[in-house]
Amino acid sequence: MSAAPIACDVLVVGGGINGVGIARDLAGRGWSVVLAEQDDLAAHTSSSSTKLIHGGLRYLEYYEFGLVRKALQEREVLLRSAPHIMWPLRFVMPHDPSMRPAWLVRLGLFLYDHLARREVLPGSRGVDLRRHPVGAPLQPRFERGFIYSDGWVDDARLVVLNAIEARERGAQLFTRTRCTAAQRHASGWTATLQPADGPARTVTARALVNAAGPWAESFLRGTASPATGEALATKSLRLVKGSHIVVPRCFEHDHAYIFQNPDKRIIFAIPYEQEFTLIGTTDQELQGDPRGARIGDDEVAYLCEQASRYFTRAVTPADVVWSYAGVRPLLDDASGDPSAVTRDYLLESNTAAAPLLSVWGGKITTFRKLAEDAATDVGRMLGEVRSPWTEPAALPGGDLSAWIGRPQRPDTDFERFVTTVRQRHRWLPAALARRLARAYGSRIDRVLGDAAALADLGAEVAPGLHEAELRYLQREEWAVSGDDVLWRRSKLGLHYTEAERARVAQWMETPVSKQRESRAAACS
Q1: Calpha distance 36→13 (Å, rounded)
Q2: What are the tens digits of pLDDT across the range 148-157?
């Protein structure tokens, strides 16, 4: 038996950052939108980034001035839109004369400071590593360096917030639902959406957006069917695996590091989840299904070796407490070096029959601009011009004005918000109040509900994680499994034991009716 068919203006295939960003923008312009994601939101590339909002300093060496400028312009737009999940971050670049001369680094940083206007982020400067605290964890041979600004983002939560707003503006989002067929006609598309645990659903759409990320090319070559004999796939993707490791904290301060390597690549070492340091990334060509991407022993060894070239205390594979690998779907430009493949995006419009827009490449920093351009292109293909709206808009939870008054600076606004949360909910432990504020921003009251005491949040399934939050994640953020909660909606999995993670997974697998029976028994 099939589910009821749906008719919409635009079908979006792919629930990574580009797909949900496009769905949000389209829905905000008044089009009816359906989005299908074969797994969880941000299950792949969009939860496996280095988690930076940055212009891409190293791309200047490849003369990608347009990409860097576009990304730099977006940094502060994004920081203002969601100060709870994004914040400014200062980066330290120790100077190694054998890598690049100091004058070249200074020139690059001058361009980085001035290619786009800055209002929040401070500019770059030199630093004496022998005197500044950021030099303490480094080997004594590094005597001077440079400090510059970029930003940090919780990448998976950024995806979820875009999805929430898309839904609030009328879009229908189906996760764990694969688009198994998409037939193009002269005036529209007919697609079959197959959920993991239910009947198939037919969707008819006036236009289709292919935002399938690493699967964008295979979607056009295998799933989508042309109206006549035209070829739907005219571009090729180059799948490049980027892997990261997480180790116990390598330094005490709040700056991050950017390290130059002998192979001309760079890696970052970033403060992560209070107790850890995130180190990455690699660039390796990937063959085969992106879903099977895993970090290799050689990548672990590479990251440890390069970090150990700089830190006084060596980083070893035995230090690694967690690792992850993401697949970047980069537009194949025939470059021999994976690091040199452009990170810019291309939007390919195809109007041979019903409108088709394919998203090639891109990076998380430019997702909003990509989505804006994509929505404009879709409108043009549909013959309906509708104005962009997302640049000044806050993401869900990002408007803190009801709590703190008029916004000032994203970083200080968040600290004022945490103070207000603690004043309004004095019963919340300080660490829990800060974590919930970080995760949910001004939506925190949707998590807390009418709770007036910690006990009102229900059972503590794992340390600091109560049933009220889990129910919220199920109800409003498409969370289904323990992994959805522990590794994407949060990074609590890093802080829990295997037994504690198992308890969360078991709770998520318990039918809602059983959860209600358990709560009723506890209250009786």
Answers
A1: 5
A2: 999 999 999 9
